[in-house]
Amino acid sequence: MKRRSFLNTIAVAAVAAGGFTATGAVAQDESYTIGVAIPSATHGFMGGLNFHAQDTIRRLEETYPQLSFVLATAGDAGTMVNDIEDMVATRDIDALVVLPFESAPLTSPVQAVADAGIWVTVVDRGLSVEGIEDLYVAGDNPGFGRVAGEYFAETLSEGDKIVVLRGIPTTLDNERVEAFQAAIEGSGIEVLDMQHGNWNRDDAFNVMQDYLSRFAEIDAVWAADDDMAIGALEAIAQSGRAEEMWVVGGAGMKQIIARMMEGDPQLPVNVTYPPAQISTAIELTALGLISSTPVSGRFIIGSQLITPENAENFYFPDSPF
Questions:
Q1: What is the reported pLDDT for 193?
Q2: What is the pLDDT of residues 4-30, one digit of tens each?
Q3: CATH architecture, domain defined by 141-271
Q4: How many CB atoms neighbour CB 18 within 10 A?
Q5: Hey, is 249 helix, strand or coil?
Q6: How large is the greatest C-alpha to C-alpha distance in the chain, in angstroms?
Q7: 20 to 30 A from 110, CA-CA: which of 83, 128, 191, 274?
Q8: Domain boundaries, the chain
């Protein structure tokens, strides 16, 4: 959805609040290239996201022969920046779909893409500067933190003690934590500490071990991600303190949901945050290229509370996540 290409090849019928409302007819023989830059499958959520990205690209290429895709996965922010620069320089992409590895290091490179007149769709983790992207697709990050926080506030008592494992430093993580804190405000719950577990099992294991060594009393853990929940649960099990505390993660990992369905008291609830959001982002970007459908703005997928009673509705045994 390269802005310069759009202006050269179609008539923009109207612009309303939020961006394009019509683009006119797109020539069917026009071909487009969409770059997709996402983190590597370093943990469960990203494994699911990579699966959905590949599946969506395969399906769209079969359905729309005028579309081609460049998919790059990166294990760090620097590699992602290089991947994006290469897409612009050598593949002449018409649109970029990017899930920033980290917000700050990707902001300037993505700004450069937008300044070059290329359509930008940002997924999940926002950039450090607002307004760069044309389309933003994500789960409901404030809702993710709020739903978890409300459960803590309703379930725990004044004076109960909790620890928090944050994700990678991103706007996404900030939104979740701020909403969680707002939800428990006034409850009397004591937050002993908040440290970054980087949405990684090993990092979360180490952070939780540190918490367990420093705090003699912990009533509950907000892990803010199911991979971190797995790491935290392992540390708790090794410490022999499993009966003292419960853990709330998020994103609906099938391993977690299965344990909830079995009535595991350490996992009372979970909060949805679907990795398939990458499919929504890619499909909306493609739709904007090949049709007059308006796709700019924000597309937010709401978070829901998963309980043992409804867990079966969120259990997908064939999913990679």
A1: 98
A2: 333 232 222 222 233 333 333 344 568
A3: 3-Layer(aba) Sandwich (3.40)
A4: 12
A5: coil
A6: 67
A7: 274
A8: 2-139+275-302, 141-271
